[in-house]
Structures are given as structure tokens and as C-alpha cells.
Amino acid sequence: MKYYSTNGKADRATLHEAVVKGLAGDKGLFMPETIKRLPDSFFEEIQDLSFQEVAYRVADAFFGEDVPADTLKQIVYDTLSFDCPVVKVTDNIYSLELFHGPTLAFKDVGARFMARLLGYFIQQEGCKQVNVLVATSGDTGSAVANGFLGVEGIHVYVLYPKGKVSAIQECQFTTLGQNITALEVDGVFDDCQALVKSAFMDDELNRHMKLTSANSINVARFLPQAFYYFYAYAQMKKLGKAGRLVVCVPSGNFGNITAGLFGKVMGLPVKRFIAANNANDIFYNYLQTGEYHPRASIQTIANAMDVGDPSNFARIYDLYKGSHAAIAAEISGATYSDAQIAETVKACYEQNGYLLDPHGACGFRALSEGLREGETGVFLETAHPAKFKSTVENIIGCPVDVPAKLEAFMKGEKKSVPMSRNFEDFKAFLMRE
Ligand SMILES: *Cc1c(COP(=O)(O)O)cnc(C)c1O
């Protein structure tokens, strides 16, 4: 399968090229040339398949032409070593819990899949080590580091701003060892990002070592997110609740919801989607007015959704051929202030005994307010509430249990390399590697 750029000015790429490059040469996002429809027989038996079986069928539609069947199956099965259960919250609202992976957030799925696919391409090329550079303000670094942990032929360098990430987040990429190196940069997130960008542009460094990124717009991180939409449908069908299904996605960069929209094009029987935003309401405003006005992001308590110019908007726009009417027919929007998010976490906990994280709270609330007669809603619970422990504890006024998996990170020994924000220092470090 070939991949084209949403900007339309770059040559079409193979899957291999699209995964290694991440972004197209014209700075557009890669899109698969065809999105295959899955056969009716698949949807007839889907409720009897395991998560891995469902995911493999979806993966085959995307990647089957480019990756041998046994390899692809292995990658899918290794990626999904954890469950994504649907849990009942109210009579007609269910939570798709995407936080049972190693770093307790949905990004584990895409990061683990990408690591394995990249590992396969490297092995095939017989090339020497590939080095992944990733700048993080917290969550991306942990998902990428854990996703790539122990994958042969790849070394990951995580650059994070000293003193600017939470203790839990820092443990998730500084205690791993093996093929993961954490660099503690004396600066802010933008300094980390600038170091990574300079590294990609430096000829001498690129002759010395093969560098790539693990950005969330990479097709190998983006497309696998479709897996769990199909599995959510399978579980709802088993419960006899899949008739008029509304799927609500707490959204920031809109990669997650776009994977769901791809699922619908593949035949997934979802009636409609809701994109739930925090105060960063750029997409919400687009739905209302047909005009897209990016702006600087606003800081909120659902901070993984603090995005002022959602990168995957380009993919949604392309998927619906630029038609605002078509987009608004498929997706409706919602936007919530921090006060509303807090109110929702508290009320849902007290009324339903279900503890939401601040991101999932936007999704739950949008369904509570937006479901129509006869519809059943599933929202994506994108992270475990313990990842936002102090925020959530302040809201509900009692302690939040930390899962053993998260505790285990906290017990590991922190190892990081101190780094200045001066590119020459970073380059000298990499040249010695
Ligand atoms: C990344 C993230 C989101 C936003 O997902 P997008 O694909 O960027 O829309 C939502 N919730 C959590 C917890 C996240 O980490």
C-alpha cells in the first residue's frame, strides 16, 4: 500500500518510508491510499473473537500487503499483551478502559506497535542501530520508552525538561535502562524539542548515526488505535447494546478519534462520534462555524489535551474531502472548563462509584449531555486516574490507589544524563555514542 501526503506535494511513500520518515517531505501527514472495508462475515462473528484476533484482522487490512502475515500477527499479539475492557458506568454509558498497558494510557497501543514494526523493518534492511529521539513534556516519553524497551536494533533517547515533569512520569522513562537513555535537559519542553529538531538537521550527526522520531502523527502509531474501536464494538455487541452506538473520544491532537473514523470507513457500525474537548475548543468551534482558527494552547487539568492546533485535523479534513457538512454530520463536539471537569469527576464517583481521570471525564460528560433516545454511549477512558493522582485526590477528597504497575516504576533507580540546552553539548554527547 502506498501513502500520500495530506499536502499533496510529496511523492507517495511505501509503508517503510512513511514509518521511518514520520512526516511527508511537504510537511503533510501520510494517509493510506485505500481504506479497505472489512467483510460482513467479520462483523457477524466479531463478538466471539479475542482482542488480538479482532486487531489482527484490522491490522491485516492496513498492513497486510507490506508485512508478511506471520510477522504482522506476532507484532499485533506482542503489542496487545493487555486487555481493553468495556466497563458499565451508567445504564447507557460504558467506559472503554485503555489504561491497562505498561504506562497506563492509550498511547501504549500505538507506541508498542510502532516499536515492533520499526524493529521489523530494521532487521529486514540488515542495517545497524536506529536511534529514536523523543522530546517529552511527560506522557509521550513514557509510552515511547516503554513501547521500545528491549526492541532489538533500536536505541531511544528521551529528552525531558528538568524539574518540569511529575515524579510518576519521570520514573516511567528514567528507571528502565537497557536501550533507553533519559536526558535531563536544563531548560523547558521547547528546548528539548529544539534539540531534537537541530539533531535531525545536522549532517555530520546524521552521517554518524541513523536518527528517527516516534512522533504521534506517525502512521505506525496512529493506525493501530483503530484496533480497540472494533474490540469495543465486539464487547457491546456481546452485551446486546451495539444497536445505536455513539463513541465519544476525549481529544487533543485528534489522532485517537481519527483512527475511529477510519474504523467507520472500514465498516464499523458506529452511529456517530463525539469529540470531547477541554477548554481548548478549536475543533468545537470549527464544527459550529466551519472555520478553523488554531491558537496557543490553554493549560488545563486534562493536560494531555492542551492542544491549540490539532495536527490530525489535516487527516479528518482529507478523509471527508474538506466538507464541513460531512464532518459535522459524523462528529459532534463538546467543550468543558476545568471546573466542569472537576464537577464531573466528583459527581460520577459519588453517583456511580466510577473514578474518571480528567480526560475521560470530558468524554463521560459529553455522553451524559449528548445521548439521544435509544442510543448507547461508549467513551474512551484514555488514562488511569492515578496518573493524575494529586489533581484527582483534590477533587474527590480521598486517596487514589496507585496500581502496582505504577508503584513498580517508583521503586526503580533513576538514571539520567544531565544535559544543557546547548545543541553543541547534545551533539558532542551523541557523537560519542
Ligand atoms: C494523548 C492523550 C489524549 C489526546 O489524544 P489525541 O489522540 O491527541 O486526541 C487524551 N487523553 C490522554 C490521557 C492522552 O494521553
Overview of the structural elements:
- The structure is a single chain.
- Helices cover 45% and strands 15% of the residues.
- It is built from 20 helices and 13 strands.
- It has helices at 15-21, 40-45, 51-63, 69-79, 107-125, 139-148, 167-174, 189-201, 203-208, 219-222, 227-238, 255-265, 282-289, 313-319, 324-330, 338-352, 358-370, 389-396, 404-411, 423-432; strands at 3-5, 30-32, 86-90, 93-97, 130-135, 154-161, 180-185, 210-213, 245-250, 272-277, 331-335, 376-381, 417-419.
- The strands form three sheets. It has a six-stranded mixed beta sheet, sandwiched between helices. A five-stranded parallel beta sheet has the order 8-5-6-7-13, sandwiched between helices.
- Strand 3 and strand 4 form a beta hairpin.
- The chain starts with a strand and ends with a helix.
- Bound molecules: pyridoxal-5'-phosphate (PLP).
CATH class of one domain: Alpha Beta
How many helices does DSSP assign?
20
The total of beta strands comes to: 13
Which ligands accompany this protein? pyridoxal-5'-phosphate
Uncertain runs: none
Q: What is the 3D form?
A: globular
Instruction: State the CATH topology of one domain.
Output: Rossmann fold
User: What structural class do the secondary elements suggest?
Assistant: alpha/beta
Helix content: 40-55%
Mean pLDDT: 95
Largest sheet: 6 strands, mixed
* Rg computed from alpha carbons, rounded to a whole number of angstroms: 21 Å
CATH architecture descriptor text of one domain: 3-Layer(aba) Sandwich
Residue share in β-strands: 15-25%
